[in-house]
Amino acid sequence: MIKISETEEQRLADILSAAKTGDWDRFACLTDCPFSNTEAMKEQFEDSSRLIRDMNNRLHTNTETKNVKDGSRIILTRIAMDMPAENPILLTLHSTSKHADSVISIWTFFQEVSFD
Asked: Which residues of the chain have pLDDT under 50?
């Protein structure tokens, strides 16, 4: 299992904190690279933030880190919903390395889709 770095863990906490308060401006400042489509990311943020703010309990997250051949890392966090039957919210980050000077970007933040 690949461990998340302290820098990545802090960034993840800051992103989730912004989502809990619905603070788009703060959320948008937490990515080190511009969003590929700011309007689409804002929509993802608004939807996911609303779901998170509607939760009754503290957030239950499961984070996995994968190394990429170029030395960068993909960080995938699943945020469980209050009702286990509901699909989790997925937050995907890209980190250039495990070091403190890593460039961390937010790639996706949406509720997983089910075709059942």
From this structure: none
